[in-house]
Amino acid sequence: MKVSIITATYNSADVIENCMQSVLNQDYPNIEYIIIDGQSKDHTLNRVVEYQKKYANIKVISEPDSGIYDALNKGIQRATGDVIGFVHSDDFLANPSVISNIVKAFKSKNCDGVYGDLEYVDQQNTNKVIRYWKSCDFDQKLLKKGWMPAHPTLFLKSDIYKKHGIFDLDFKIAADYDFILRVFKNPELRFVYIPEVITKMRIGGASNRSLKNIILKSKEDYKALYKNNIGSWNALIIKNVSKLSQFYKK
Questions:
Q1: CB contact at 8 A, 34 and 41
Q2: Which of 53, 118, 145, 217 has its CB 3.0 to 4.6 Å from that of 133, i.e. a possible disulfide?
Q3: Which pLDDT score is estimated for 47?
């Protein structure tokens, strides 16, 4: 089983090597690593190219884009793996066996998607956990309660993208939530939860970087719920309130 991992970058020189090393140090051998750079103005691309010289499985595209979802869509369209996942430039995989464990779940459970837990960590001290997103086994009823798996931990079979499409660029900050609702509401698909930390994310992501972004995120979350005929403001309120427990490490 071939796994395609996509990283979108833009001016990520300070963190891109940590991100790349977490992928390249995986003990699973069959990984295609696609890096989509939005024509960074710093040294990001130079550092990426240095790794590309050493690793044959790295593909690099550097060109202007319309934001992270546009970049991820480009990666999806170029991916040739049986399974597709994302490791954003500010993120890194929790340990070298993450992909092996994900592949085992796909093979043993005969499922369409696998997801796990996410840790938000300090920008400088990545051993310091700020927030712990512990997920759970999937039930469709959870969608009406605003539930979603942590998107950075979600790996899907490539056929899912062929059937359900890619990220909707009408969403500027919540296209991942819209996509997850679109996919997870399909009762024919099976998703498996691995109770372990898959990804570690540095705090300060786009959705919570400012009050303006938090408001925009809430508006787009509601738009996604309405578009996918899942729920309304009740689901959005529960979704936001449920995040409070993530600040207490499990």
A1: no
A2: 118
A3: 97
**Residue 54 per-residue DSSP state:** T
CA 72, CA 146: separation in Å to the nearest integer? Answer: 24
pLDDT of residue 234: 64
With DSSP H G I counted as helix, E B as strand and the rest as coil, what are the percentages for the chain, rounded to 5? 40, 20, 35
Crossing angle of helices 211-227 and 175-184, in 10° steps, is 30
User: What domain range includes position 202?
Assistant: 3-247
SS (H, E, C) 216-245: HHHHHHHHHHHHCCCCCHHHHHHHHHHHHH
Average pLDDT for consecutive 10-residue bins of the chain (250 residues)?
Answer: 98 97 98 98 97 97 96 98 98 98 97 98 94 95 91 98 97 95 97 98 67 81 88 60 55
Residue 23's nearest CA partner among 199, 210, 217 is 199
Which residue type sits at 185?
Answer: K
When computed from its CA atoms, the radius of gyration of the chain, rounded to whole angstroms, is: 17
CA separation for the pair 200, 36 (Å, rounded) = 20
Sequence letter at residue 198: I
Question: Which positions ≥6 away from 129 have C-beta within 8 Å?
Answer: 119, 120, 121, 249
Count of all residues that appear for the chain in the document: 250
CATH code of the domain in which 155 resides = 3.90.550.10
DSSP label of 134: -
Residues 6+ apart with CB under 8 A from 195: 116, 117
**What's the number of domains the chain is made of?**
1
Euclidean distance between CA atoms 140 and 98, whole angstroms: 26
